[in-house]
Amino acid sequence: MPPFRAIVADDEPLSRDKLRRWLIEHSDFNVVAAVGDGIGAVQSAAKLLPDVIFLDIHMPGLNGLEVAAQLQSTTAPLVVFVTAFGDYALQAFDLNAIDYLVKPYDKERFLRTLGRLRDRIPNGKLHAKAVQFARQHTAGSNRLLVPDGAGQTLIERDSILWLKADDNYVHVHCINGRYMVRRTLQDLLVQLGATQFVRIHKSTAVQVVAIASINPLLKGDYEVQLRDGEKLRLSRRYKRALFGRLGR
Q1: pLDDT tens across 100-147, in order?
Q2: Domains of the chain by start residue, with CATH
Q3: In terms of Cα–Cα distance, which of 88, 78, 85, 75 is closest to 182?
Q4: pLDDT one-digit tens code per residue, 157-202
Q5: What is the pTM for the complete model shown?
Q6: Which 3 state secondary structure label does DSSP give 171?
Q7: Is 246 strand, coil or helix?
Q8: Is 51 left (phi over 0), alpha (psi -120 to 50) or beta?
Q9: Can you state the percent helix, strand and coil of the chain, rounding each to 5?
């Protein structure tokens, strides 16, 4: 069996180097990347498809939970949260992280983590658990990491006008551009916050404050016009929910 591929993500160089050194002492683990910020962690995970990622909770750009929320459920690695704050760690462990390390941890505690990983990496059903947990606990996030050319960029939630599902992807239409993320629409709405957006079709959701007007069409149908001039069809199925959100 080839070595398990590992990524270390921690903004503290000493902590990052400690994890990397201890991991490479074990021939069944191969450190494929060591990064110092959240965006680098997401980019490395998407490119290198590791078996496990050690995520510091507090990092610049994106914190550990936000990084885990951006991972793809179908290819997600196991997640070990690393933190100096025990409350984060206990919550993560109780709610689906594979394990946690509270700084300062010793080698004995680290070896117990490796033992858990050896038992659980082959079980693909466990890999998406930390992703699901992170998305639930970053609900209402005001930032979203999206692919942008060869890299990734952070966009503000308030810049998003509407979302359009397309098979396993969602087109994110913003004030200054359009991006495509590999997510389901429902999953994305949970992360961005249910109060900020409203569905107008099974495959379309709009930011409530982006709506400029709702105009009647023939046979009881309606058209939603956004502040940038975009016109979208309102499905009858979602009419009541939209009017309720707008107080009509």
Answers
A1: 888 889 999 999 999 989 988 887 666 777 777 777 777 667 788 888
A2: 4-137 (3.40.50.2300), 143-245 (2.40.50.1020)
A3: 75
A4: 999 999 999 988 999 999 988 999 988 898 888 888 778 899 999 9
A5: 0.76
A6: strand
A7: coil
A8: alpha
A9: 35, 35, 30
